[in-house]
Design goal:
Chain B: Its main location: membrane. The complex is a heterotrimer. By secondary structure, chain A is α/β, with parallel strands linked by helices. Chain A has 14 helices and 13 strands. An eight-stranded mixed β-sheet of chain A has the order 7-8-9-3-10-11-13-12, with helices on both faces. The chains are: A alpha/beta, B mainly alpha, C mainly alpha.
Amino acid sequence: MTIIDNTATVPSPRDGADHTGPLLEVRDLHVEFHTRDGVAKAVNGVNYSVNAGETLAVLGESGSGKSVTAQAIMGILDMPPGKIPQGEILFRGQDMLKMAEEDRRKIRGRKIAMIFQDALSSLNPVLSVGYQLGEMFRVHQGLSKKDATVKAVELMDKVKIPAAKARVTDYPHQFSGGMRQRIMIAMALALEPDLIIADEPTTALDVTVQAQVMDLLAELQQEYNMGLILITHDLGVVADVADKIAVMYAGRIVEQAPVHELYKRPAHPYTKGLLESIPRLDQKGQELYAIKGLPPNLLRVPTGCAFNPRCPKADDICRTEIPALVPVTEQDGADLPGRTSACHFWKETIHG
Amino acid sequence: MPDVTKTATAVEDAVALPADPAPAAKQEKARSLWGDAWVDLRRNPYFLVASVLIFFLLLIAVFPSLFTSASPTKGDLVKHFLGKPELGSIGSEGWLGYDGQGRSVYARLIYGTRASIIVGVAVTAIVTIVGGVMGMLAGYFGGWIDALLSRLTDIFFGIPFLLGAMVVLQSFVERTVWVVVFALAFLGWTQMARVMRGAVITVKHADYVHAAKALGAGTGRILFRHILPNAMAPVIVVATIALGGYISAEATLSYLGLGLAAPTVSWGVDISTGVDQIRVAQHILLWPSIMLSITVLAFIMLGEAVRNALDPKLR
Amino acid sequence: MGRYVARRLLQMIPVFLGTTLLIFLMVYSLPGDPVAGMFGDKGADPATLAKIRHDLGLDLPLWQQYWNYMTDIILHFDFGTQIRNGRPITEVLGEAFPVTLQLAALAFAFELVFGIGLGIIAGLKAGRLADNAILIFTLLIISIPVFVLGFIIKMVFAFELGWIEPNVSNDQLVSEMIAPAIVLGGLSLAYVARLTRTSMAENLRADYMRTAVAKGLPRRRVIGVHLMRNSMIPVVTFLGTDIGALMGGAVVTERIFNIKGVGGLIAESITRREGSTLVGLVTILVIIYLVTSLLIDLLYAVLDPRIRYA
């Protein structure tokens, strides 16, 4: 495979048709951080995949490893203290962890782009947005400063920033939160990448603006037929845009399912707990359910199933054996495509 | 919109209740800023070296007679500075040689420590109190108080530090240790006022200060219980580093002929004598210069170590 | 931006007046009589002394002396005359000032190049051998008092190796100024290196740095454009305020190398109680300080758009 070399001068990223598997595949990924208090195992064997045009939502609390996985894919982990002891990240069938740094750099931004949570701190405060957007074209396509600025204005129009031409010389702090996040999206879209990773793209925004930004992202994803990994802790965002969901807990995927199935019939007590803790209008007056306990300390993950101290179903086996991520089936044994769960009692949870 | 973070908050509330103490007890107790810094400091070699050095310097300053039996003031002209150091016999009267009046360089080194330490500590104490109060008032009250105090600080800051100290010293006939302390503190407080003002302004906008105000805490309580403890970190760091600087400044003034003067025993006095005799006998200048540099280094290392420990961003 | 400049200029006025008044009061509280000093031990008859005092305006109340002094400076650029030899102070300054300016400029260039250079190396190699070596080097430089450093350099390069002359000649050649400039700029060099390193280490962890990497920018661009633009802001601020400090700090360096600049003039004026010379010198230093800090504030606004539009 020589995608990288071939496309060095080709602006359109949608080639490499000779590869038939998923666009991105993460296999048995482990990430740990060496801190002065010990080794924090942030990601412990994550597997997931995304196809072109597909949206995978990765759901989890803070510290579940969802963002760390994304950073590992982007190759922007701080190493050290971060370390990837094992695993593969296949992009169009090629393991990015084995690539030369220069080859990886050419994928970043051009093939796989990332949208960060806090646009204010993620944009450089002392460079104009036009410069930061234009930089993508200047670096990856060798455009002149003038042409790059023209492209930057086009991009700002594309993400519906009013008066783009006038505002291209403005600095990040002069934009509202929603507009800044649009600029982040524009930057990620600049080179029409194959895959976008959005790390909690709407968390920092007002609720009214959240919907606009999500809609824009979904619209652009459709237009360009991109793969999208949406990292979030917001179950509401997920339901509208995702195709499938991976739920993470303590650095592992505990459940995977197509989006509507997961809402209908969760196969893991953690997912169930999350869904039950959503306030619902039809249950007004009842006490709101909350998962008891705190997320685990990654320096001392509980033995067995990491969720066992907080799990209402926990039994002796949960404290000793780590449950494998196994396919979930109907009661009669019929396949449920795309569904897996890492719970010793998944049957009871989904069918019980 | 359903949101897991809200659930997490609810979870924390649930844990806070004593009903289910088990998971909470297992959780690591959150360390405070200073507690965390202390853990960091104990492993920092710079901090350990600096602490040991400062301990010994203080010991020498308080009990010089523990370290030498020789007198720093009685000279025997027979042994004047051509009597070369006998580095082999460590700690003896003559191991670092004698000065022009036949006095033991080692004894003068030991007895000179006190003057330097007093100047450093006293100037630092004065500028921290004066500058700290000015900075705190300016930072906390803002408005015309800030404008007035900041301009006043600017005025004193405008005069070059060493030059101002020289003028002040020149107006005293007898230059004792306390006169030198006054001269250095006269312009030195501005630095501390600026640091304190900046720190207070940062802390002032913290949520816990707003919370204390909302709960009806008085100005005094907010200043001393909430703002001061949290604004102290940068002040302590700057004060420690400045302490070394003041010791160095005292010696510099002595070198210029405006610092402490003869009957006082101090490194600065010996350094200024040593400068005149540089071509004949280097050791008179050498040893006090080394002691001075080590002392300044110790305080600067201490300050830097504390700064790094308190600032997690630098790790 | 215009209002910002105007406000800064207005703030400068009370500071200028306050600082000059302060130094005026300090100098005139010095004991001793410069007029009597002119006549040495023999002394002069009281009538002559009174006449000279009257001619120089020294018999007026202090506030009036200050008023006359300031109006002369502002309206006629007249800094008064040296009491001892009656030369106008502007003339005395005109001789000494270029020498110190040359020394300070060389020291500044030295601290700029090596300070920032060492700081960048330390910042990029944070926690590694080079960083620790630079840390120890800068700590040593900061700890060794300037006059000791001066003597070490003089001993080694002048007396032992014979590469330089121990004292700067009256011609003040640039080649003679290099060693003094290193001594003068050494301390600031260490501070600049530390500040650059700290600022870079802080900004290296900023979110926008992660974004820059995620954009697929080459490392030299991530460092050279994104990191440097942000990290240099505090360094530039420090460098600006340091110009004035270098001129004030030249007192010691000029003494060590026997340079006839402003520093020597200041030391001489203090010991001779030449009040008007001293006030004139300090007034000039204060003006330099105020102008550079204004320029730095403006430069700061240029470098950091968040200030510009605030």
